[in-house]
Amino acid sequence: QTATSFYEAVGGADTFRRIVAAFYREVATDEVLRPLYPEEDLGPAERRLRMFLEQYWGGPRTYGEERGHPRLRMRHHPFTIGPLERDAWLRCMRIAVAEIEPELLDDEHRKALLDYLEMAANSLMNAPW
Ligand code: HEM
Known about the structure:
Bound molecules: protoporphyrin IX containing FE
CATH topology of the domain at 6-81: Globin-like
CATH architecture of the domain at 6-81: Orthogonal Bundle
């Protein structure tokens, strides 16, 4: 028998699709974040973040198959990420996560997810301003 992954426990693909779609809906109108995204179409970036989060939480490993090792610090190097960008990213993410019903994301899973996102966002800062 195998333990249920976080991915499965919170509703699987549909939950991750909803979180990342809502996140990019927020990014699209965020004046701090939107200029950082090089592509006019946010669709491909949305797909990469969704695949990454699915893999991280025990879902399909499509991200690794397509992109290899995440190397997130290296991949964020081209963008200036200071406290302002970190806060904007987390603000969009918290809005997105808040849209998932408690029936899917209970308090314990919600806290684990938000704690991880905060830790990850802090770890990707590469500028002090
Ligand atoms: C890619 C910004 C935090 C995961 C990107 C891109 C930008 C960006 C501009 C390029 C879009 C693309 O082409 O994919 C930021 C900013 C952050 C932040 C301003 C603020 C701290 C995070 C965090 C995670 C993350 C916390 C993970 C939990 C990713 C992934 C990609 C990406 C997986 C695609 C990497 C690839 O090329 O495979 N980010 N990001 N980012 N970001 Fe972030």
